[in-house]
Amino acid sequence: MRTESALAAALGLLLTAAPVRAHHAFSAEFDANKPVKLHGTVSKMEWINPHAWIHIDVKRDDGRVEKWMIEGGTPNTLLRRGFTRKSLLPGTEIVVDGYQAKDGSMKANGRDLTFPDGRKLFLGSSGTGAPRDGSDPREPNR
């Protein structure tokens, strides 16, 4: 009986640790040497854990529209930084500075989001290995 209880407890710990293991560091997916500046229109905002995702349509000079996915911080972190569920409605024009995915796909880790009126919001996740570029107001000056 004691062995079964210990086994059940160990299995429970392993199962609850799985979501933590799934969380990735910046360098696992994004390339600090591939900065991007994307001018686009919000098509969708996903408030999901562990990272919120902003989907934008970026119109290129030749008229093609690229569909980009921008990873932000956690929904809770974004809410504390001033985002609301109405901040990024479909059709909102934005500029995103960030870093492209290592695989070259149209996916990026967002650092800053700028609205047409010049307001800026910090999107990045601090402490995940993302480059220190001064975007995070809590980052120590170096």
What do you see in this structure?
By secondary structure, the protein is an alpha+beta fold. The chain is built from three helices and six strands. Strands 1-2-3-5-4 form a five-stranded mixed barrel. Mean pLDDT is about 80; it is low at about 15-25.
> What pattern of helices and strands is seen along the backbone?
HHEEEHEEE
User: Unreliable segments (pLDDT under 50, ≥5 consecutive)?
Assistant: 13-23
Name the shape in a single word: globular
Secondary-structure-based class equals: alpha+beta
Major beta sheet, strand line-up: 1-2-3-5-4
Tally of alpha and pi helices: 3
* Cα Rg: 18 Å
Number of strands: 6
Proportion of residues in β-strands = 35-45%
What is the average per-residue confidence, as pLDDT, rounded to a whole number?
Answer: 80
Q: How helical, in percent, are the residues?
A: 10-25%
- Ends apart, CA distance between termini: 57 Å
Major beta-sheet overview: 5 strands, mixed, barrel
Detail the topology: elements first, then pairings:
Blueprint: H1 2-22, H2 26-29, E1 30-46, E2 53-59, E3 65-71, H3 75-80, E4 93-101, E5 107-114, E6 120-122
Parallel strand pairs: 3-5
Antiparallel strand pairs: 1-2, 1-4, 2-3, 4-5, 5-6
Compose a concise summary of this entry.
With 142 residues, this protein is an alpha+beta fold. The protein has helices at 2-22, 26-29, 75-80; strands at 30-46, 53-59, 65-71, 93-101, 107-114, 120-122.
